[in-house]
Amino acid sequence: MDIIKYLQDFAATSEATYHVNPWIFLILFFGSAIPLYFGYFMIAKSALTIEGHKLKRKKIDKNQLRIGIIISVIAWWIPYVYVMIYGKLPINLWLIFIVIILITGILFIKTLHSKITKAEKG
Q1: Is pLDDT at 122 greater than 70 in this prediction?
Q2: What is the mean pLDDT of residues 68-77?
Q3: Measured between alpha carbons, how far is 76 from 70 in angstroms, rounded to an integer?
Q4: What are residue 89's phi and psi, to 5 degrees?
């Protein structure tokens, strides 16, 4: 039962320090997983099709690709927007927060762009 007490203390300390309820953050974080992966599914579906029991490439449906990216990005941002709106973070945490968001966003776009380019060529 020490773990439960620790989690309760951690939640109370986090809320008092940063003005963010960690339980709401966790609900938003795990709740956004379904739309996040649905967006990933749409991204994959925009370039792939199933014929028989095999996965095959197709001409990229750019509209479906855009919708998948928008859904994924919004779902990924939901818990962090909560922190941005309601949190009172010190400047060093804001800087870390912004750097993480920028780096992961840039890596996602770069990886996706390279895979789309490779798929269109091959």
Answers
A1: no
A2: 90
A3: 10
A4: -95, 145
